[in-house]
Structures are given as C-alpha cells and as structure tokens.
Amino acid sequence: MAQETQAFLSRAYGLNSTEKTRAFYQDWAKTYDEEMRVNGYSSPPRTAKAMADSVEDLHAPLLDLGCGTGISGEALRDAGFTVVDGSDLTEEMLLAAETKDIYRKLTKGDLNQPIPAEPGEYANITAIGVFSPGHAPPEIIRVVVDLLPPKGCFGFSLNDHALEDPGYEALINNLTRDGTIEVAFKEYGEHMPGIGLKSMIYVLRRLYVVFKTNSS
C-alpha cells in the first residue's frame, strides 16, 4: 500500500488539466481514503474547525466543493455542520461519498465551469485540498466569494505546491484591499505529513459593501 500511495500522490500534484484530473481521480477513487489516511491527511479537520469557529450558524447550508469521497464532509460533520451538499468532478468519487450518508445532495461539477449554486444559496462554502494551478486556478476564489451572502465564509486549503503560485495570495490580498472580504482565519500547518507536505488554511468572510451618498 505504501508504494502504491506514493505513486498516486506524486502523480496527483503534477496534473495540469481538467481531463487529466478527471481520469486520475476516476482511477484513484477505490483506494483514495486509505491512502490519504496512511499519509495523515490533515487539511480537512483543520479547515472544518476553522470554519466552525468563524461562521454564524452551523446549521445553515454549506457547499463542499471538490468533496471527493467525502473525507472533507466527514470533517465538516464532526465539526458540527448539519446541512452539507457536495460537488465533485467524477462520478466515482461521488459514489464513494454517497455511501457515507453525510451529504444532503451530491452534484457532479467542474470548477472550471459554472459552479452548481446560485448566489446566496449557500451560507458558506469550502474547497478543501482542491486548489492547484493546473486544475483550480486562483480566479476560482473570486467566483466562489461572489456566491456568498454577506458574512458568509469560504474555507479552503492551499498546499505547498499551490503556494508556489503567487496568484492565489495576490488575489486574496486584492479582495481584502477592495473591501470584498476579510481574512477571518489564516494558519500554516500540516497537510500530508506522510510526504512532508504542509498547507495554508484560509477562511475568507464576505463583507457588506456600503455605498455612501452626499446629502444635499
């Protein structure tokens, strides 16, 4: 199992297109949970706790983007979230997630296509272990933030590979400067200890935008 795990993980961080990502995760679905467990996958519980500490209502609907086999959903449930929907690129991953009886609804979706949600439909959104330059570029952060209602939170992880791309944090800084969001939580820590990989956990909170007019 250890050799097989290393082979999958080393290939996962080299994917550079939606098509390659879809085919890869279709093949990986059956062994994904065990391989992630062996390597100490830590970003889901870290992100879930940060979200639970940041949101106003744990019972408000939450969308788990890139939910995979439901590891992230399990962490969200354990952190107290009670209404969670999931979306993922492959049917194989979604079938595995369905067996865990965590999600209210599961939807197939590609992050490079319109996200399956209307603005304000979800109070909060997560994307745990999802962002990578080849599959989920920085611009998706802005797309997700635009779906949030005021005070809604977006929790996600950026592993060391994603952090090598300055575009992610540059976009977060731009959204902060223009008053669209505030950074409710930011912490660097373990992501995949088994392969020496760490991640930054972010929770972004959508802010009200108030336009003032001069009175006569």
What does it look like?
There is one protein chain. This protein has 216 residues and is an alpha/beta fold. It has helices at residues 2-12, 18-28, 32-38, 43-54, 71-78, 91-98, 139-147, 160-163, 166-177; strands spanning 62-65, 84-88, 105-108, 124-127, 153-159, 181-192, 197-206. Helix 6 links the parallel strand 2 and strand 3. The termini are far apart.
Quaternary structure type:
single chain
Order of helices and strands: HHHHEHEHEEHEHHEE
State the helicity in percent bands.
Answer: 25-40%
Largest sheet: 7 strands, mixed
Structural class: alpha/beta
Compute the CA-based radius of gyration. Answer: 17 Å
Please list the strands of the largest sheet in the order they lie side by side: 3-2-1-4-5-7-6
Compute the average pLDDT.
86
Count of strand segments: 7
Poorly predicted tracts of residues:
1-6
Summarize the structure.
This protein is α/β, with parallel strands linked by helices and 216 residues long. It has helices at 2-12, 18-28, 32-38, 43-54, 71-78, 91-98, 139-147, 160-163, 166-177, and strands at residues 62-65, 84-88, 105-108, 124-127, 153-159, 181-192, 197-206. A seven-stranded mixed sheet has the order 3-2-1-4-5-7-6, sandwiched between helices.
